[in-house]
Write a structure and sequence with these properties.
Radius of gyration: 22 Å
Strand content: under 5%
Helix content: over 70%
Distance between the termini: 29 Å
Number of helices: 20
Number of strands: 0
Number of domains: 1
Shape: globular
Largest sheet: none
Length: about 475
């Protein structure tokens, strides 16, 4: 089953190269998304329905990455459905769209490999692969700003990947004579590792992979890349790529816990987490681009994941719940921003007025996405953030708790100011002088957001037993 989702993109490449038909572009993305979702669901349900399935030494599904795999599959399926309507509006040449399809398949393949890898070195290789694939997707529109964003992304993330590689080398020094980077070997032998080299390796890996995750102060690529990428790609970047990097950090953090160096690692995660919230709180008021605004929101939520991981216990549980909710809601948010861009033809917040009157469905999706990301009940993010606040309060981290709530409040106000203004405000002078041509969007550009938001709000009210057990198993050992 693992081979199926890893080898399918290669088969799709061959088919697209041999048969250069336009309809095959969307078809291959849809088929891969469906296969990915079916296989991921089978893993989560512990169903081995394919007789040729065999365990793989380098790739495996465990209690932790199961959550990441399922979230990735759900978001990718939603993006694939949305992409059907999005590409209809795209006037690019067939060759350009075929290259777009190649890179989407390669991008998801790389993220899947990073999530399923049970070897630190192999995971690093696939994380590097995500950089190569997504750089072209960010540059897809080939504008001045998109090429700047792509180069900035490649430059910063390449430095981050290099730092992570140094961290892996330092990890091998810390392991002594172990000579293995398989996570199971690292966990079992962690108490024997040299603490000095292990702590030093964690610094490099956290800053290196934290670059891909979008943690401050190594987040600089993220606002530009999200703002310039096509909306379906922005959704994948925020809702799946950042998670893939986070999983690698989680696995290394587990090594720190088993080795007895968790206190050192927790402090670093807390610092980067709160710095991410602070950066978002500062910049969210000075943004005139709604896609950049959503990108800063992603930085904030990655900071929340880092804080939950540092807290451990219930905090780690809250982080996993937050990961699910953020991926679904932010995916819906970015896809809805694609609708707004199609309707208004601009990314400027001040240029978007009367969204509810112009397109009621897009307007309500925009508002509900904000309600979800702001963690208002019944959003599942309310549950995760409440658990984090409760954990900080019970552990007597009163100052951290107050700072956490203050920064979240500032960010929510900044987002609300923009979202409400876009949805409800009306510029009468502009409406009187400019007759905007009505844009009719395909139904596939509404359905994915509706489904993702329903799930995110639904599990905020009631989390199915199977999902809750899977989340609990994913945080064992923290």
């Amino acid at each position: 089953m693992i081979n199926l989702i890893l080898l399918f993109p290669i088969l799709a490449f061959i088919i697209l190269a041999l048969c250069k038909k336009k309809f095959l572009n969307n078809l291959m993305i849809n088929i891969y998304a469906a296969v990915h979702f079916i296989v991921s669901t089978a893993f989560c349900l512990n169903t081995d329905f394919l007789p040729m399935w065999k365990p793989c030494r380098f790739f495996a599904v465990d209690d932790t990455n199961k959550i990441f795999l399922m979230v990735m599959s759900a978001v990718f399926l939603a993006v694939a459905v949305y992409n059907n309507g999005y590409v209809k509006k795209e006037t690019s040449l067939t060759k350009k769209l075929r290259h777009y399809t190649y890179m989407v398949l390669f991008f998801v393949f790389s993220m899947t490999g990073a999530v399923l890898s049970n070897n630190l070195g192999i995971a690093w290789v696939f994380i590097e692969g995500t950089t190569l694939a997504s750089a072209y997707l960010i540059y897809f529109h080939k504008t001045k700003h998109s090429i700047e964003a792509a180069w900035k992304y490649v430059f910063i993330c390449s430095i981050g990947i290099a730092l992570a590689f140094v961290g892996i080398i330092l990890m091998t020094i810390a392991t002594g004579s172990l000579n293995s980077l398989f996570y199971s070997d690292l966990y079992n032998n962690a108490p024997l590792f040299n603490h000095f080299w292990l702590q030093l390796s964690f610094v490099f890996i956290l800053f290196g992979i934290g670059t891909k995750m979008g943690l401050a102060p190594v987040h600089f690529w993220l606002p530009d890349a999200h703002a310039e990428a096509p909306s379906p790609i922005s959704a994948l970047l925020s809702a799946t790529l950042l998670n893939s990097a986070f999983l690698m950090i989680v696995n290394v953090f587990r090594v720190m816990v088993f080795s007895g160096c968790s206190g050192y690692a927790r402090i670093m995660l807390l610092v980067m987490g709160f710095l991410s919230l602070f950066i978002t709180a500062v910049f969210v008021y000075h943004i005139n681009n709604y896609k950049r605004m959503l990108a800063y929101s992603s930085i904030e939520n990655m900071g929340i994941l880092a804080i939950g991981t540092a807290l451990g216990g219930v905090g780690m549980l809250a982080a996993m719940i937050h990961l699910i909710g953020h991926s679904l809601i932010k995916g819906a948010f970015f896809l809805t921003s694609g609708n707004i861009l199609e309707i208004y033809g601009t990314k400027k917040i001040k240029s978007v007025t009367g969204l509810l009157k112009t397109d009621r469905r897009t307007g309500w999706l925009w508002i509900l996405s904000f309600v979800g990301i702001a963690a208002f009940p019944p959003s599942v993010l309310f549950v995760s953030e409440f658990l984090m606040v409760k954990t900080m309060f019970l552990e007597k981290h009163y100052i951290l708790c107050a700072l956490f709530l203050l920064l979240l409040t500032i960010v929510i106000y900044g987002l609300a100011k923009a979202v409400i203004g876009m949805a409800f405000s009306s510029n009468k002078e502009e409406n009187a002088t400019e007759q905007r041509e009505k844009v009719v969007l395909d139904w596939t550009m509404y359905l994915p957001q509706i489904v993702m938001l329903l799930i995110a709000f639904g599990i905020g009210i009631y989390m199915p037993r199977g999902l809750s057990e899977t989340v609990l198993m994913s945080v064992a050992g923290f």
